[in-house]
Amino acid sequence: MAESRIGADDGSTLPFTAVATTTCSIARTAEIIGQPWMLVVLRDLAHGVSRFDHLITHIGIAPAVLSRRLRTLVDAGLVDRVAYREVGHRTRHEYVLTTTGRQLGQILLAAKTFGDEHLAGAAGPPVHAEHAGCGGTVTSRAVCSHGHVLTAGDRVDERVGPGALLPGS
Predict the structure, then answer these.
(1) Helix-, strand-, coil-residue percentages of the chain, each rounded to 5
(2) Cβ–Cβ under 8 Å, residues 40 and 66
(3) N or C: which end of the chain has fewer CB within 10 A?
């Protein structure tokens, strides 16, 4: 397979590797959510499992690992750390997705769709996502700005964006 090319504003094309990985949006996102356990932590937060001890119990993650993952999410502005106190107990914290953090739901849905289609056991997926408005099954799919639904075989061309770091720039 030949290396992909990326379109430039002047009509020329550049090899994919001409754009620095340091400015790549996928690389920057993976730096945060690509850590082990991170997608599972985000899944639970998206479903309202927000207290540290509940996350440990439900996920089965080591407390030190969970603490590091939550700190990463808070530092990235994806999760807010909110104090609460139950009567007779010390102040504790729960973790709530921010508006930006909730946008990661698209990534979680894409991972779920892939898992349902390629990794589910013989009995099928363990959970179905349904649109609350109509009951239809919710899946992840790519749609262009003109409304065309893309399939895995459809060609997608990329163009150099304003944040790209190119040779000589």
Answers:
(1) 35, 15, 45
(2) no
(3) N
R_g (Cα) of the chain, nearest Å = 20
Beta strands in 66-145, from DSSP E residues, in sequence order: 79-84, 92-97, 142-143
Give residue 83's region: left, alpha or beta (phi > 0; psi -120 to 50): beta
The beta strand positions in the chain, using DSSP E, are: 5-7, 13-15, 79-84, 92-97, 142-143, 149-150, 158-159
pLDDT digits (tens, 9 = 90+) for 145-167: 999 999 888 988 888 888 887 77
Q: Which residues of 58-85 are buried (b: 16+ CB within 10 A; e: fewer)?
A: ebebeeebbeebbebbbebebbeeeeee
Q: What is the pLDDT of residues 93-145, one digit of tens each?
A: 999 999 999 999 999 999 999 999 999 999 999 999 999 999 999 988 899 99
* Tokens of residue 103, six digits: 């946008």
